[in-house]
Design goal:
Layout (H helix, E strand, L loop, with lengths): L10 H8 L2 H16 L4 E6 L3 E8 L2 E9 L3 H11 L11 E9 L2 E12 L2 E13 L2
Antiparallel strand pairs: 1-2, 1-6, 2-3, 4-5, 5-6
């Protein structure tokens, strides 16, 4: 097993990458598909060569996609930005939240980030607030 080297990452480059339409759309698709499948959690886990995305549906984790890790920092930065997390911090656990509207409902996401050997693991807990009036 090979450990990844600590890389110097320029913050402005990561921020620009995270705002690219492809990254924004990818994160939006991950969230929308999880809501459509009625997932209670979204797990985004770095591996040596990819980011693995899994949904917890009815208590079981189901792998939905593996994303080639060419631009993992942009995806991680996008999650941090929408969750109001410190984008520069990667060595301690972080907690955040954000809300979206989906099919007339307000959905609250609680976000936890944990440092791992290959990067940061994110778990997004989906909390349905019910119908909007």
């Amino acid at each position: 097993m090979e450990l990844l080297k600590d890389e110097e990452i320029e913050l402005s480059t990561v921020l620009k990458e995270s705002e690219k339409p492809l990254i924004v759309k990818l994160v939006d698709i991950i969230l929308t598909e999880a809501l459509a499948k009625r997932a209670s959690d979204i797990h985004i886990e770095p591996e040596i060569d990819c980011l693995r995305v899994r949904y917890r549906v009815d208590g079981a984790l189901h792998e939905v996609i593996k994303i080639a890790q060419e631009k993992p920092n942009a995806i991680i930065a996008r999650l941090k930005i929408i969750s109001n997390l410190n984008i520069t911090e990667s060595r301690i656990p972080l907690d955040g939240r954000f809300k979206v509207k989906f099919e007339g409902k307000e959905i609250d996401f609680r976000v936890s980030s944990l440092p791992t050997t290959f990067g940061q693991k994110f778990v997004l807990r989906v909390l349905d607030k019910g119908n909007l009036s």
